[in-house]
Amino acid sequence: TLDRSSAASDVYKRQDIDPTRTSNIKEFTIVPNPNNGEYKVIVKLYEEADIKLRIIDMVSHEPFAPVLRNRSVNYEIPFNQPNLTAGTYLIILETKGESQVKKMIVN
Description:
Shape: elongated
Oligomer: single chain
Number of helices: 0
């Protein structure tokens, strides 16, 4: 909620946001990690938002299309990719103007 102050500075103040919290991402976990191509990505947000997950190998190749999910605060997304080549991958979470990256190892 925006509260428009009548003060001379005419500053807008956010009243519904915790000023100590800088991210909407509460949790971003890959389990198990390392894995054999079968894993789960768990995402928990403070506020409902869409998310986008991208998987990128270490040579910037995206072996799968991005995964999009709509308007929730809790996501548990299973992956079963047995043909995923052994190596290190980056899982990129994008949501509401911010992103986080986690490293995943496939045996």
